[in-house]
Each structure stands twice: as structure tokens, then as C-alpha cells.
Design goal:
The chain is built from three helices and seven strands, in the order βββαβαβββα. The chain is of the alpha/beta class and about 200 residues long. About 20% of the residues lie in helices and about 15% in strands. It has a four-stranded parallel beta sheet, with helices on one face.
Length: about 200
């Protein structure tokens, strides 16, 4: 059980800070959450939902988890208790993505920096639809044990990706890279070809 609060009603660490329909634009020391809807124009069931795209929901999830947060996502059932088919489809897509990539999110901790890339997240409540779309240069980091996860938010179109934060930060903290693998790769396919320099 947790107490959630808004508007700095509790001191940091006394309860869980909640950002309604929004997120943070930085990495706080304390755990927080957002509560948001799958729809842009309603919390509950209505005719004429303006649903957020599934990719947008996934990107927000990855961004929020990288910043020490969690997502409480609202689904609005009909009056008879059934969940609209479009919302069931969204949940299935989210579940399928998590089945492959969940280890980079579930049970993880933030890294030294939450991420890198050109896209700015608009922080604060009721800003959940103000972010521009992420790009293939937007990357978010999480850790679990001695594993660092780098989630590239848009699948790259070329075979090479440069993760700039892994140049300076790994050198500063003397964290050697032992291997680089894809989370979605079947076990036993071997490591990826990679090289490390001070630039990434």
C-alpha cells in the first residue's frame, strides 16, 4: 500500500509523488508515478474516444521507468463492465511488447542518467499529449544487477547505433563493457559486434 500525493503535499520520500496525466523531465532521487488514461479526451468510457497511439504509450512507459517512475494506466469499461475492443487490443500490444522487452523495465533501477537524445519531454501534470514524437536518437537507460539496458525508442534504420552516454559516463565511473546483446535475441545467438571509445 502507498500514499500518493500531488502539489508537494508531503516531504520527499514520505509518500509517492503523483504527476497526473504527465511525467517528469528529469531523474529524481525518489520513486514517483503518473496516472494517465489511454484516451486523450476522457478517463472513462465515452463514444468518440481520441486514443493515444500504442507506440506513444510504450515510449512514455520506457521514459518514465528510466526516471525512477511507474505508470498507472486507466482503462474505461462500459456500463456493463466490458472493456472496449480497442482498449483490449492496446493492452495486448503492450503485453506482447513487455513479453519481449520487459526485463529492461520490470524490476529495474535508474542509471546515472535517464537517457539521451534530442526530444524534450514536457514535465508536469496535464502535459501528457505535448511531447513531440521520439526519434531513433532517443535512448533510455535502466539497470538490473550489473546489466545496463539501453532502450532505443525508435528502431534504427542502419546497422550502427552510437550511444554517447556510454562514452563519458562509463569512462568516469570505470565500468567496463563485457558484452553487448539484444534483449529480443534468442539465447545463444552470441554478442553483437561493438567497439567502445570515449565518444560512445
Amino acid at each position: 500500500m502507498a500514499i500518493n500525493y500531488k502539489h508537494r503535499a508531503f516531504p520527499d520520500g514520505a509518500a509517492v509523488f503523483d504527476v497526473e496525466r504527465g511525467q517528469l523531465d528529469d531523474l529524481p532521487d525518489t520513486f514517483w508515478q503518473t496516472d494517465t488514461s489511454v484516451s486523450r479526451n476522457s478517463w472513462g468510457y465515452i463514444d468518440g474516444h481520441d486514443y493515444k497511439p500504442v507506440t506513444s504509450k510504450l515510449h512514455d512507459l520506457v521514459d518514465i521507468v528510466s526516471k525512477n517512475g511507474a505508470v498507472l494506466r486507466n482503462i474505461g469499461p462500459r456500463a456493463d463492465g466490458t472493456i472496449p475492443e480497442s482498449e483490449v487490443s492496446m493492452l495486448r500490444h503492450l503485453g506482447a511488447w513487455l513479453a519481449v522487452n520487459g526485463e529492461a523495465n520490470s524490476g529495474t533501477r535508474p542509471w546515472k542518467v535517464f537517457g539521451e537524445g534530442p526530444t524534450d519531454v514536457v514535465g508536469g501534470s496535464f502535459n501528457d499529449t505535448k511531447r513531440e514524437g521520439f526519434t531513433r536518437s532517443d535512448i533510455r537507460f535502466t539497470t538490473q544487477g550489473d546489466t545496463l539496458y539501453a532502450t532505443i525508442l525508435v528502431v534504427p534504420t542502419n546497422e550502427t547505433t552510437v550511444i554517447r552516454s556510454l562514452g563519458t559516463h562509463l569512462a568516469l565511473h570505470r565500468c567496463p563493457i563485457r558484452e553487448v546483446t539484444l534483449v529480443r535475441s534468442p539465447r545463444g545467438t552470441g554478442p553483437l559486434a561493438w567497439e567502445w571509445t570515449g565518444k560512445g
